[in-house]
Amino acid sequence: MSCAALASSFALWNCRYLLPDRPKDSKRKTKVVKRTNNPTWEETLVYKGIAKTQLPSIGVEVSVWDANKLNQYEYLGGCNLNTGSKSGYGMDATGTERALWVEMMSKPNTMVEGNVQLRSTME
């Protein structure tokens, strides 16, 4: 995932939570990418113990943050990757967000890549 034209020199990509319940132990985050306005993350965030049959009813909330030298964070944008079932919090994916999740479900154990427009708010 890449995010172009960030205003500062630090960026953090966060796979915040599994949806729709958002348990705290599901939070994952990448390393901070420093000194670039076009960060690219080459990391895999893994969730273990999820059955293929669960995938249509869950999703992930992804967010991108700007981090300054004082470890203060500013929200830059985010997306929800899921089927768009509207069955609970954050289960509202449409377009590319939904298409990537559906493709991932149809290709188990295969890397799926894509570009997603970040939302300015997750409400």
Automatic annotation (TrEMBL):
SUPFAM superfamilies: C2 domain (Calcium/lipid-binding domain, CaLB) (SSF49562). Pfam families: C2. Residues 1-102 form the C2 domain. It comes from the Eukaryota. GO terms for biological process: exocytosis. GO terms for molecular function: neurexin family protein binding. GO terms for cellular component: exocytic vesicle; plasma membrane. PANTHER family: BITESIZE, ISOFORM I. This is C2 domain-containing protein.
